[in-house]
Specification:
alpha+beta; about 25% helix; 8 helices; Metallo-beta-lactamase, Chain A; 7-stranded mixed β-sheet
């Protein structure tokens, strides 16, 4: 990994909706008496999580990182996962907070293809259609291949019936920038650029976008409670690899003084990182969310 570039971007983290996942699955081998002190569970052992996405604006681009869960899965799905949010949650947030239309989004950076990260790519269930018709999709080629043929253990996390037609149509129209390899450049816009590096423990070829200020942790470190290296989700396809990925990323984050952005932390959108000793890290400065209303952005900042 390397950091470079002269930045003139404007950043925002958006909080269009919330959902719930099983607390035990979110924290793996960590005992409930420990994790429940940080994020309490409901009567079904589920914890409430944000569906946070990032908006990066340059002079010529409006760039989204991930798209949330969408609103078309149906009542049974929404009840199971405790989904709460307005109709068209991401579009409403973009419209009310930034006066942005779907056609104004120029780029979509997809960290990975789990349903809670790419649900906002499309709308409608019977006739599923792309929400952002002009956006270039930045997607890792090897991850896309894996998402079409995952293991039986994680097949439920992928909904190819929704994302595959949208991606294939975008590819036919020349609107997919296929990322390859462990690291590289996602896009360059004048003096602005966004880079990426991959982790593999949660799901193979998980993309982490970053620049000289921020790094999007996605599901490698989904909440601030997951900062300790052994605190790894049971959802991860290779938990031991996740711990190695975290140490590698943490050393880079500390070296470059980057701010981590947490995709699923309801109360904290980001944090600085401090290295205490070898393989031991903790949050330094913590950046709390200013609003927990799922119909409003969690925070807007430059």
């Amino acid at each position: 990994m390397e950091a470079r570039g002269v930045m003139s971007k404007r950043y925002a983290v958006l909080h269009p909706a919330v959902f719930k996942l099983d607390g035990g699955a979110m924290f793996g081998i960590i005992p409930k008496p420990l994790w429940s002190k940080l994020i309490p569970a409901d009567e079904l052992n589920r914890i409430q999580l944000s569906l946070r996405v990032m908006l990066i604006r340059t002079n010529s681009r409006n760039i989204l990182v991930d798209t949330g869960i969408g609103d078309y899965h149906g009542e049974k799905f929404d009840d199971r996962f405790g989904v709460i949010g307005p109709k068209n949650p991401l579009l409403e947030t973009l419209r009310t907070s930034f006066n942005l239309r779907p056609e104004d989004i120029t780029d979509l950076i997809v960290t990975h293809l789990h349903f809670d990260h790419v649900g906002g790519l499309g709308a409608g269930q019977a006739e599923h259609r792309a929400v952002f018709p002009k956006a270039t999709l930045h997607l890792h080629r090897q991850h896309f291949d894996y998402a079409l043929k995952p293991t039986l253990r994680d097949t439920g996390s992928f909904h190819p019936q929704y994302f595959r037609p949208i991606i294939e149509k975008a590819n036919e129209e020349g609107r997919v920038n296929w990322l390859d390899g462990e690291k590289g450049t996602i896009l360059v816009d004048g003096n602005d650029e966004i880079l990426f590096s991959c982790s593999h423990g949660h799901t193979p070829w998980l993309v982490h976008p970053y620049d000289e200020k921020f790094i999007y942790m996605a599901d490698l470190v989904p909440t601030s409670a997951h900062i300790p290296v052994p605190w790894v989700m049971a959802y991860d396809i290779a938990p031991g690899q996740t711990t190695r990925d975290k140490v590698r990323f943490y050393d880079f984050i500390c070296k470059e003084n980057l701010t981590m952005i947490f995709e699923h932390d309801l109360k904290v959108w980001g944090a600085k990182l401090v290295k205490k000793s070898q393989n031991d890290y903790e949050a330094g400065e913590i950046f709390p969310v200013t609003s927990l209303d799922p119909a409003k952005p969690g925070l807007i900042f430059d």
